[in-house]
Amino acid sequence: MRTTKLAFLIAAFLLLVGACSNDDSDSTSTTAGDSTEDSGSDSGDSASEDAQDNESQDRDAAGGAADAVMIESTTVKAPVDQLYPGTDAITSGEVTANWYQLGGNYVVVYSGLDLDSIGPACPGNSIRLADGSFSSVSNAPTADGGCEGATTPEPPAPPTVCDGIVVYTTAISSSDEGTLYGSFEIPAADGSFTGGTSTVAADASAAPEIDTSGASYEFEGTVYTC
Length: 226
Fold this sequence. Notes:
This protein is α+β, with helices and mostly antiparallel strands and 226 residues long. The protein contains two helices and 13 strands. It is globular.
C-alpha cells in the first residue's frame, strides 16, 4: 500500500516537472521569435529611410538644375591673355570675358575662375572709343578687399559671384562703338594690381540678352550657385 502511494507521488512529481519545462521552452521560443521580427523591422525601416534620403537629394539636385538661369553662348568674348607683369594668380587664357547685354548696358560673365585659390579680386571693364579715349571705366570687388586701393568708379550694381563665374553689369552702353576691355585684376601687397585684360570689338547685335536675377546659372553645361 505504501509502495503504491509512493509510486503515485513520484509520477505526479515527474508530470509537474515536465509541465514546467515545457512552459520555459515555449517562453524562450516566443522571445526569440519576437527578437527576430523586431530586428527585421528595424533593418527594413533603415533601408527605407536611406532610400527616401537618396530620392530627396536627387530631387534637390534636379530642382537646382531646373531653376538655374540659362546663359547662352556668345561670340562676343575674349580670353584674358594680356597679363600684367608679375602676375601668377592666373595664367594666360585661363579666364574668359563673355559679353552680353541687358537694359541698354553690356554685361560681362567672367568664366574659368577658381576664386578659392585666387582670393578676392577686382574685375573691371571699359570701352576704348574711336578717338582712343577710354569711357565707362568701372571696377568692383568679388569679396572684401578685392579692390583695395582702386580709384575707379564702381558699376551700376555689384557683381554676382557664383562659384566659378562672375556676372558683372557694366557701365558701358550697348550703343557705344569701339573696343571692349574685360579685365581681371588681383590686389598686390604693395597696393598695385596684377592680373590681365582682354579685348574684343563691341557688337551689340551679336551680344545675347541675359537675365541677371538668378540664384544659380547654367553656363556651358555647368550649374553655378550664387
